[in-house]
Every structure is written in structure tokens, then in C-alpha cells.
Amino acid sequence: MNEMKRMGAVAVLLILSGCGATAYKPPDEQAPQALLKLKYKYSEVVPGSTLGARMGIRHEAKADDDRFQSAFNQSYGTITGKKGGQEIPMAAVKVHPGKKTDVTMAVYFSWYTMHTYTVMINNMPQMRTQQVYNEKACTVQISFTPEANKAYLLDYSSPNVDRDCTGNAYEQVPQRGDQFKLVKVGVSKAR
Description:
This protein is mainly β. The protein is about 10% helix and about 55% strand.
């Protein structure tokens, strides 16, 4: 039983840490910065799963396999039916300006199942049970170079649970009063 608790604790830690990704370190308050506003939209759901949204970031990647850092990962509760899902509120992340920035965004549905297997201990078969983390998600990557003191809207949309999602990055250009226009600065590619 202690083995099962330990495995469950490890799984929870991995999920909370963004599946092993290190945490993103935003700029200090006095340092130049840009603001990314995250907007998530989804249509299909996985009933009985937990809804979540996440965002990863990396600056000045040298190769496609450079690691992303976890900048946002939020759970929104259990999906109870085929039609219903919670609205994902907008979130914001401060980023370092002037560097090519790659952002991954995803809406994900996660759940646990129990996996039973047999191990041999002292030539005796023993049954073990392990909790297994399952997930369905659609992830996009958007690349652009944010400028200091500017705000950007990252707009993610997923019509299906694990495919066909899209994302766009827009600079919010101030207009008269509280108005602004959106100028596209980045388009997603599927991951």
C-alpha cells in the first residue's frame, strides 16, 4: 500500500510541475517586460475528466527540441456531461521582451485509471496496483518576438479534444480611449 501512495504522490508532483518542466521565471518588476494575455476556447469535452489549461514558454531556442518552461497550468474541475464545460477565464503572464519567444498552449482533459500487474518476489507472484495518469490534449506552438511595454493576446481555440486546435498571437495596439485593435504577430503550428 505504501508503494501505491508513493506512486500516486510522484504522479501528482509531475502533473503539478508541468510534467517535469521547470518553472518559468518572469522578468523582475523593474526589468523591461511584455504582457501576454492568454485566452482559451474549446468545444468538445471528455466527460468524467478534469479540465485544465497550460502554457509553456522558451526564449531564443537554438533547436526544436529545446525545453519549454511551465508558465501557466491551471485545473478547472471535473467535466460532468457531454455538453457542459467550464469557461476558462483569461490569464496573464509577464515575459522577457526582445527575444524570439516560443509559446505552447493547450486545453487538456485528464483522469486516473488503476493498472494491476504481477511482480515476482522471492519466486512468488504478487499483485500490484498502480494509479496511472491519462490525458487528452491538443497543443499548439506560436512564435513571435514581444516588445517591451506592449501587451499581446494569445488566442487558443480547440474544436476537438486532441486535434485541429489553432492559436494566434496579436499585439494589442491602443486606439482612442479604452479601445485597441489587434494586429496579428504570430500563427500557430501544430505540435
